[in-house]
Design goal:
single chain, 230 residues, alpha+beta, 5-stranded antiparallel β-sheet, 60% helix
Length: 230
């Protein structure tokens, strides 16, 4: 029994269609925000990939190394023991100047990873022409392939540490997967971190793609229900 003047305890319920529309609006807004973050981190990952590819600081000298110097994937610099000047060699366009077959293979895979990520960024233009879910999945496969290439490059690279040029810098105790008196430098560590970045970004791309597909399915069902009601 209602007491006159007492506030009503009943709550107004939104119609199911209106509640679904609000939920869908929030769903789309959140997906777009996550998509923007995914795109930003994809660009940052591409920058990391390019830096790892071109910088010659994968391994370097230490306090007890016979010679000063540093090695990248294809470019390297070594001292001559007589002066502080370093002699630099190696070019990606001239594979014959790369001192090890393992370094050549690692250069190829890291370079392929860089190309894949840059192509993924180029695919952002497809958002204006194709289904959003399809573009996310295309980019997800590219990022997964880029991460796989990074894994292969990072695993193969130490196999070339037994080359004569590396031994000249790091000492005779240097062997495959053993650096002797040398140490791992920041570019190699950054490449390993890039592997995790690629795997996380590819997983997120597949999640966003599947969410877009489910959203499209819900919209189609809603349109069909509206047409049947009419």
């Amino acid at each position: 029994m209602m007491v006159p003047g007492a506030p009503s305890t009943t709550t107004t319920m939104l119609p199911a269609s209106e509640a679904a529309k609000i939920y869908q609006t929030n769903y789309v807004r959140n997906s777009r925000a996550i998509g923007v973050l995914w795109a930003i981190f994809t660009i940052l990952f591409a920058i990391v990939n390019v830096v790892c590819f071109i910088q010659p600081y994968w391994i370097g000298d230490g306090a007890d190394t016979p010679q000063a110097g540093y090695f990248g994937l294809f470019h390297y610099c070594i001292g001559n023991g007589l002066s502080r000047d370093l002699t630099c060699q190696g070019s990606f366009t001239e594979f014959s100047t790369i001192p090890s077959g393992a370094f050549k293979a690692a250069s190829f895979f890291i370079g392929m990873s860089t190309v894949l990520v840059l192509t993924c960024i180029g695919c952002f233009a497809l958002f204006f022409f194709c289904s959003t879910g399809t573009v996310y999945k295309i980019c997800g496969w590219m990022q997964l392939a880029a991460g796989t290439c990074l894994i292969l490059g990072c695993m193969i690279y130490p196999d070339g540490w037994d080359s004569d040029e590396v031994k000249r810098m790091c000492g005779e105790q240097t062997d495959k997967y053993t650096l002797g008196a040398c140490s791992v430098r920041w570019a190699y560590i950054l490449a390993i971190m890039g592997i995790m970045d690629a795997l996380i970004l590819s997983f997120l791309a597949f999640v966003l793609g599947n969410r877009q597909d489910s959203l499209m399915s819900e919209e189609l069902l809603g349109d069909k229900a509206g047409n049947n009601a009419i």
